[in-house]
Write a structure and sequence with these properties.
Blueprint (H helix, E strand, L loop, with lengths): L2 H12 L8 H4 L14 E2 L2 E2 L4 H17 L4 H6 L17 H12 L10 E3 L16 E7 L2 E7 L1
Antiparallel strand pairs: 1-2, 3-4, 4-5
Helix pairs in contact: 1-3, 1-5
């Protein structure tokens, strides 16, 4: 499972998407996104025509935040000058608890910056690199340079 998919599954679980009749389920919005393009807003959240459209929107938001190089903590609480946060405290959320929940589910430290090259344990990476055991491999591009870091 990709990093995006793993984060999406964790967010959907946290948001109650898998609970029949939940707002997230009724709105086909597994991430309880507040708004999305031209999707109507129902009960304060975007309502998608299909579950697939809701999953696609959530994946796009996750990919956008990964491209920003945010850690999971920053992803949920926000980062000044970069992103206002997926679940900021100002919107009556508990971003630290949310980030910890997702971090535990995904297996990524809450304060580690994410990148498109972040590989989860057991997932093959480009070039035949494989994450093994509890190690997480991270490939980060920095102005034309690529660094490979092994986090324990």
């Amino acid at each position: 499972m990709s990093l995006t998919d793993s984060i999406a599954q964790a967010i959907a679980t946290y948001e109650g998407y898998y609970q029949p009749g939940s707002l997230a389920a009724r709105n086909n919005n597994p991430g309880n996104l507040r708004s999305w393009g031209t999707a109507p807003v129902v009960d304060g959240y975007a309502q998608f025509d299909t579950a697939g459209a809701g999953w696609s929107a959530l994946a796009r938001q996750i990919e956008l935040n990964i491209s920003r190089g945010l850690s999971l903590g920053e992803f949920f609480r926000g980062k000044a000058g970069v992103y206002s946060g997926y679940a900021p405290a100002s919107d009556n959320n508990q971003p630290a608890a949310y980030a910890q929940f997702v971090a535990r589910r995904v297996g990524v430290p809450v304060d580690t910056p994410l990148s498109a090259g972040f590989f989860l344990p057991g997932i093959p990476a480009p070039g035949g690199i494989q994450a093994a055991g509890d190690d997480v491999l991270l490939v980060a591009g920095l102005v034309g340079a690529v660094s490979l870091l092994m986090l324990l």
